[in-house]
Design goal:
The complex is a heterotrimer. Chain A has helices spanning 50-58, 80-86, 97-100, 108-117, 124-138, 142-145, 155-167, 185-202, 213-219, 237-242, 247-254, 275-279, 295-299; strands at 4-15, 22-34, 39-43, 65-70, 73-74, 90-93, 173-177, 205-210, 222-227, 230-236, 305-307, 310-312. Chain A is α/β, with parallel strands linked by helices. In chain A, strand 11 and strand 12 form a beta hairpin. In chain C, strand 10 and strand 11 form a beta hairpin. Classes of the chains: A alpha/beta, B mainly alpha, C alpha/beta.
Chain lengths: 319, 288, 335
């Protein structure tokens, strides 16, 4: 049994006022599983629905339809009390470490609160002991951490502190929404390596959300590529990223700038002018930009085709 | 300890140190009113219309009162009145604003409709009406209550919109992930951000209260037997003090009023600058 | 080929001087920077956030506003064979250089396009403010042909900013900054908030502009992949100083400074799961920088001298400059 199952999840936002209502299908009928002790990546450009998916899993946002199942039990629509119990199992790390913590509160307060509120520690000594252990796991010393405000740390330090807070409850699964996007390239790997360690040493599963395919390749076991609300390709990271099948995955991979001046891009790309137009497109949403688009792509939304253990949502693989 | 540091920082601002000194002097005057040898409501206890001298520091009035002691009583009453009004209306604003912003839905809409109607209500005519209805019966506490219920709406709105934007920030989610309950999120996470608004508006509300009280009193719409800066001026004007050359009867209360206004204003500007979250974040720790 | 210099800084120092309720604080954001930028090149500046990149750009653009101050050094513009010491000419003269000789796309500028104006009105406003005596028709003509030259869809001129995607807005701010054909274009992290596909579009545009107008582009980003793809030369900045400068090929093939090596070797690649490490520790505070070489607390090779003296930026090979005592003492070998 998978640890976490997302079944046919859809989220529709209605924007605008009474006079002009628009619907945005932020997440469009997606399904995936996360196994125990696995790093599962959701990758895609901004606005493709990654954060919305994460928020629904965490219960901060309500799905329009679909199910979230954790350890065989549905967790969408559960009661407050159960939701709090679940915090011990499932924790999260956000994109911007500086907005993760209240700038007017000391960072250590969140640590003590987590431990006391969830009944993990009842004395200061016990709490300090757990905090020290988790901080050590992310490479921050207790002394440099206590009694400090967020702006007294660098972004990289603060992100590691944010991970340490999420680890306090010994969760089985961590939802990490673009945890390195706001961290300097020079410090990125110190954080990416942490997730790898968590999996290897403690068997924690991670849902790693990113638009950076190289770090995704570096740490993940399986990967789902999202485009405008849909998963267009899903499978083992090695296969999806080394031989991408969906034209969008190919474009995404090819657009990663390589730190090698001998391998500059020599092809050109087209960009969409607006996000709206693609969200509302009939058929395959990528067909407007796809170099291999066929007639059928503009009319019908493709189903998934199985290509050597990878599921691809593209008519190129029909038959 | 922390308070001391804040205080020291603030005192390094000239506006604050001036305002603070004046307020301290006025407070001392208000406090020593208890040592007054005369009751403020008794007339003809000293010779009439004596100019300021060593014996009568601020001179005496046409009613035979020692103006110095009357002014001391007035400061005390005016300050208490202003503080009461500001305190009551702040409590209303915080409670309404926070509930409205955090609960949302129907509660939010009702509170906002109420506050909208209060904001569009012309306040001075309403107060004049209240004054006319209560007449002599209008004591300072009733007036404070009426004024407080007229002046919370705007700040409640500001607080509400602040809460709405704070709710969207990630640290709200971190607090929830840390197992905090709604009420504790509001108080621990949001209150520190609300504080500067509350502080600055408390002082502004005090200014407004003193201004309105003075206006109503000069118009003779409050109980003239309670000495306040307003009623003192009301008596002076109705005895045509300036015309009769009893200038000190007008000069001292007006001077005190002006000093009070300026100093509260300077305190409000200085404190709200100091409490501005952006400034606070810079100051916290030795910012990198 | 002899390349002609177009802009240079000489021992430039720029600090932020803050007064926080009586407590004075000095942030030494740019320390002793001397760089020389040539005509017709793409010059990249890399470094982690907070190391002073934007501060340096603002000083070069001569748009310094308090609390930022120029503490020492010079910025020289070279236009039509004549040199101008920017901080020693009048504000009037300085203004003439802005947007005509040098232009600047500030960090995050795509989110500051006026939301109630159509793109063509934004162009009109901009051109009107910075040139004289052009009719409305002429101005629209200029805007349209510029947009066409850059290969952007001309339909966007009639759109409002919010109707466009982030990547398109960023490209418009770049188009705006280049509409008066400046010789030098400064772009501060033009791709940082964008995802890879959009980022690629923006880089493509910058390269197109450079090819078309034969001007100079100074681009700041902390993404070494972006630099590899477009820059001709790269400077690495750390804690307010330039610590290494060389041609792009040289920097990637033969990085000398330990910090530069971390920057380059920590980037993962497809098909290679070898463990990659970031530089240990955290960036230093610029108001209280470490003694000696500011990288020494994080440097695995630091020795006595590194803690005591600031290493000078020296040329070790033609066109390759480094500020590192270890290289100076010849222990660099090949490692
Ligand atoms: N609260 C909301 N109201 C309306 N639209 C939203 C809301 N949140 C997200 N969206 C829209 O949903 C789409 C997906 O957003 P998001 O999940 O944040 O994408 P990502 O995290 O991949 O960048 C975007 O078009 C965004 O504008
Ligand atoms: N307006 C400002 N006031 C005070 N300090 C500033 C200001 N702008 C930048 N700084 C400080 O100057 C240093 C360098 O900043 P900046 O040049 O923006 O770095 P970068 O662009 O490399 O990220 C940082 O420590 C930053 O906090
Ligand atoms: Mg997101
Ligand atoms: Mg910058």
């Amino acid at each position: 049994m998978p640890l976490l199952e997302v079944r046919n999840l859809t989220k529709i936002f209605t924007i605008g006022n009474v006079f002009s209502r628009k619907k945005v299908i932020a997440v469009d009928n997606i399904s995936f599983d996360v196994e125990e002790s696995e790093i599962f990546t959701i990758a895609g450009e901004s606005g493709c629905g990654k954060t919305t998916t994460a928020k629904i899993i965490l219960g901060f946002e309500e799905a329009t339809s679909g199910e979230i199942v954790y350890k065989g039990k549905r967790i969408d629509h559960i009661h407050h009390r159960e939701r709090r119990e679940l915090l011990k199992e499932m924790q999260a790390v956000f994109q911007n470490p500086f907005s993760t913590f209240n700038p007017l509160r000391k960072v250590d307060r969140y640590f003590y609160e987590t431990l006391y509120n969830l009944g993990i520690a009842d004395t200061k000594e016990k709490a300090d002991e757990i905090i020290k252990e988790k901080l050590a796991a992310v490479g921050i010393s207790f002394e440099e951490f206590v009694e400090k405000y967020p702006n007294e740390f660098s972004g990289g330090q603060l992100q590691r502190i944010s991970i340490a807070r999420a680890l306090l409850t010994n969760p089985s699964i961590l939802i990490a929404d673009e945890p390195v996007s706001m961290v300097d390239a020079s410090l990125r790997m110190s954080i990416v390596n942490l997730f790898k360690d968590l999996k290897d040493k403690y068997g924690v599963s991670v849902v790693y959300i990113t638009h950076d395919l190289t770090t995704a390749y570096y740490i993940s076991d399986r990967i789902a590529i999202m485009f405008r609300g849909s998963i267009v390709e899903i499978g083992p990271a090695e296969k999806v990223l080394m031989e991408p099948r969906h034209p969008y995955t190919q474009l995404l991979k090819e657009s990663v700038p390589e730190p090698d001046p001998n391998r500059k891009w020599n092809t050109r790309i087209n960009l969409s002018e607006t996000e709206q137009s693609e969200y509302l497109r009939q058929g395959c949403k990528f067909s407007g930009r796809c170099p291999k688009a066929m007639e059928i792509c503009k009319r019908e939304s493709p189903p998934y085709f199985d290509v050597g253990g990878v599921k691809v949502k593209c008519f190129l693989y029909k038959d | 300890m922390k308070m001391l540091i804040y205080f020291r920082d603030l005192m390094s601002d000239k506006r604050f140190s001036f305002g603070f000194t004046v307020i301290i002097i006025l407070t001392v005057l208000a406090l020593i009113s208890v040592m007054s040898p005369y009751s403020p409501v008794r007339w003809n206890v000293v010779p009439e219309e004596k100019p300021p001298s060593l014996k009568y520091l601020m001179g005496t009035t046409s009613l035979g009162q020692d103006l110095f002691w009357i002014v001391c009583f007035s400061i005390k009453n005016s300050l208490i009145f202003a503080l009461t009004t500001a305190f009551l209306s702040r409590v209303l604003a915080i409670v309404a604003g926070m509930i409205s912003g955090f609960e949302g839905g129907i509660v939010d809409r009702s509170i906002m409709i109420l506050s909208d109607s209060l904001i569009s209500l012309p306040r001075v005519p309403v107060l004049i009406l209240v004054g006319a209805i209560f007449r002599e019966g209008l004591n300072l506490y009733i007036l404070a209550l009426v004024m407080a219920s007229l002046s919370w709406a705007w700040d409640a709105r500001v607080i509400r919109s602040q809460i709405l934007s704070l709710r969207e920030r990630d640290f709200t989610l971190t607090a929830i992930l840390s197992g905090s309950k709604s009420l504790s999120v509001v108080f621990k996470e949001y209150f520190p951000h609300i504080l500067p608004i509350v502080f600055a508006s408390t002082l502004n509300n005090m200014l407004w209260a003193i201004g309105i009280e003075t206006t109503l009193s000069i118009l003779g719409l409050t109980n003239p037997l309670i000495p306040t800066l307003g009623t003192t001026l009301h008596w002076a004007l109705s005895y045509q003090a300036l015309f009769l050359g009893v200038w000190w009867w007008v000069f001292f209360p007006v001077t005190v009023l002006i000093l009070l206004f300026i100093s509260v204003y300077l305190l409000s500007v200085s404190i709200s600058e100091y409490l501005d979250p952006r400034m606070r974040i810079q100051r916290i720790g030795q910012a990198r | 080929m002899m390349s002609v210099e177009v802009l240079r800084t000489e021992n430039l120092k720029s600090y932020y001087i803050l007064d926080i309720f009586g407590k004075k604080k000095v942030i030494k954001a740019v320390e002793d920077v001397s760089i020389s930028i040539k005509e017709n090149e793409i010059y990249g500046i890399a470094g982690e956030s907070g190391c002073g990149k934007s501060t340096l750009l603002k000083a070069m653009f001569a748009a310094v506003e308090p609390p930022q101050r120029i503490i020492g050094g010079k910025v020289i513009y070279r236009d039509n064979g004549k040199e101008y010491d920017v901080y020693h000419i009048s504000e009037e003269e300085r203004k003439k250089f802005r947007w005509h000789f040098i232009s600047y796309v500030p960090q995050g500028s795509m989110s500051v396009l006026n939301p109630v104006m159509k793109i063509k009105e934004i162009f009109k406003d901009f051109i009107e403010t910075h040139t004289k005596g052009k009719t409305k028709e002429e101005i629209y003509e200029i805007a349209e042909s510029h947009i066409r030259d850059l290969g952007l869809p001309s339909g966007i001129l009639d759109a409002y900013p919010h109707q466009l995607s982030g990547g398109m807005r960023q490209r418009i701010t770049i188009a705006l900054a280049t509409v008066l054909s400046p010789k030098v274009v400064i772009a501060d992290e033009p791709t940082t908030a964008l995802d890879v596909v959009t980022q690629r579009g923006v880089i493509q545009l910058l390269k197109d502009i450079q090819a078309l107008k034969r001007n100079t582009i100074i681009i700041v980003t902390h993404d070494m992949g972006v630099h590899a793809n477009m820059a001709d030369r790269i400077a690495i900045m750390y804690a307010g100083r330039i610590i290494e400068e060389a041609s792009t090929e040289e920097i990637f093939e033969n990085p000398l400074h330990p910090y530069t090596r971390y920057l380059i070797y920590s980037i993962p690649k497809f098909g290679d799961k070898k463990k990659r490490e970031s530089a240990p520790g955290a960036p230093p505070s610029l108001s209280n920088p470490p003694s000696g070489c500011s990288f020494h607390p994080r440097c695995p090779f630091a020795f006595e001298k590194c803690r005591e003296e600031v290493p000078p930026l020296k040329e070790y090979k033609v066109g390759h400059k480094v500020a590192c005592w270890r290289v100076e003492e010849g222990e660099n070998a090949t490692a």
